[in-house]
Write a structure and sequence with these properties.
Blueprint: E1 6-14, H1 25-39, E2 44-53, H2 63-73, E3 79-82, H3 92-99, E4 104-107
Parallel strand pairs: 1-2, 1-3, 3-4
Length: 110
């Protein structure tokens, strides 16, 4: 029986960045950590990456996050992968926005 392959998106976010002309170091580090985690997972296919650099995580009204949620609703992705720090203070209720849409949520925590 074939293994389930998750159509996944990487979601990367950093609240504040001083230099908006280039990608913040935190974003680059998160991407490296996620890529390292994903390489060890045979059942994950990355189909997109969404980045909110310099955008507060207090609200869900973030440009890349909103686009990613549309991709989930359209069936383009069924799994979101983040670095652990993104959800450190999030509650189970906040994660329900993914689960109610049939989307898996993975914290890489490397």
């Amino acid at each position: 029986m074939p293994e389930k392959i998750y159509k996944a998106a990487k979601y990367i976010r950093k609240s504040y960045t001083d230099d908006k002309s280039s990608e913040s170091e935190s974003i680059a580090n998160q991407r490296k950590q996620l890529d390292s985690f994903i390489q060890s997972q045979s059942d994950i296919e990355i189909v997109s990456e969404w980045v909110d650099d310099g955008v507060s995580g207090i609200l869900f009204d973030r440009p890349a996050f909103t686009q990613m949620m549309s991709a989930i609703e359209n069936g383009e992705i069924n799994c979101v992968i983040v670095k652990d720090a993104y959800v450190k203070h999030k509650t189970k209720n906040n994660l329900l926005i993914f689960w109610k849409r049939g989307c898996n949520f993975i914290k890489s925590a490397l």
